[in-house]
Design a protein that fits this description.
The protein is of the alpha+beta class and about 475 residues long. The chain has three domains: about 5-290, no CATH class; about 295-405, no CATH class; about 410-470, Arc Repressor Mutant, subunit A (Orthogonal Bundle). It has 15 helices and 18 strands. The termini are far apart. Bound molecules: zinc ion. Zinc ion binds near residues 20, 25 and 41.
Length: about 475
Amino acid sequence: MHYEAVIGLEVHAQLLTRTKAFCACSTAYGAPPNTQVCPVCLGLPGALPVMNGEAVRLAVRTALALSCTLRTVSRFARKNYFYPDLPKGYQISQYDEPLSERGHLDVEVGGATKRVGITRVHMEEDAGKNVHHEGVSVVDLNRSGVPLVEIVGEPDLRSAAEAAEYLRSLRDVLMFAGVNDGNLEEGSFRCDANVSLRPAGEAKLGTRVELKNINSFRFVERALAHEIARQQAVLDAGGRVVQETRGWDENEGVTKSLRSKEEAQDYRYFPEPDLPPLVVDDAFVAQVQSTLPELPRAKRERFVAELGVSAYAAQVLTGHPRVAALFEEAATLHGQPARLAAFVQSEVLRDVVTHGLDARIPVSARQVAGLLRLVDAGAISGKQAKEVYAKIVGSERAPEDVVAELGLVQVSDEGVIEAVCRQVIADNPRQAEQLRAGKASLMGFFVGQVMKQTKGSANPRLVNDVLQRLLG
Ligand SMILES: [Zn+2]
């Protein structure tokens, strides 16, 4: 029989606050165990939580980025369970009155756009971490009380590939929105999945299995594909899928049972008595909305429609917020986005190293734009540009200086160059007027004309300087 997979993902994302959700402890990653704790996040008797306003602002921003409807008054609840990494014996979460509901995320799947529903986005705190090392287990509570959003997706995904794409898109949205660093390795973006199969065409859902903590993009697709195949084999053999929680074993490449439905916990949710209801009024929501950065999908569409770069280039250039920012700044300085996009893709990206929201980009927008302007001006060839690029990477050097050092420049007599510049401006009064009126991209035109007049022998930096002076 042909079966259809039904997948829904639940993502826990750490909000980028400096301090924890309900106390002033630091959220910085990598500190020695139990050095970022206080009576509140240790769950000591009598300690009272105080809501972190920045966490609320980032949670609202997350909800807005996912087109959710916000609840003006939401409520915190205690989710009770016992585990060594949970000193209070409960986690502060939201239950029947979450911060927001009914959003969506548009995902590109196989060349088409698919809208995936978001059931809800709510706030909660993280638990601590059990660390197992060389036969010894310790509890590190540095993470205890770190603010999270839980993003519950509708069971709209139909394959492992779709689920992986949804997860990538969701991570990109959170990173561009500036609410999360997308760092799976450090656990600030984590995913659980609900997977079931049903006969194709059937509306009723099959028995679902919960897959816990699939913490790498490399494995999410494999884990889901394996679980779909496992359930298919059970059904094909005439068996029944058992409702249970399974974990992904990366070493063996299989999912394994962790606990069955009979062992499922009753969390005995009840309203958190130590926190008042959370109120986000229309003015606050409007204020957060007004500071929401441009999201990757809108950015891609604008790069294509307004800057004329290819859909593929737009996809590559929006792979990281910092890369997108470098491209835009350089494109503005240079004036020819499509050419700049090609250069950034072929040369610059090779040297970019990203870590979460951080990116090491060893060249500035000004350097890249200046270099391409030299090529436009005919001062150096495209091949020489790569040579010059190799010399400016990791330095603050102006490409013009490297060109001069490499002996690629001839005429540097300012008097001679100024005479040519004046002539070119006199010959092109309309362009000169437009440039003075603010059309900066015309600078390339003037540089090009001067270089043409001097048969490529003028020092482009001087040409730029003189033109800036005459046209500025
Ligand atoms: Zn604390």
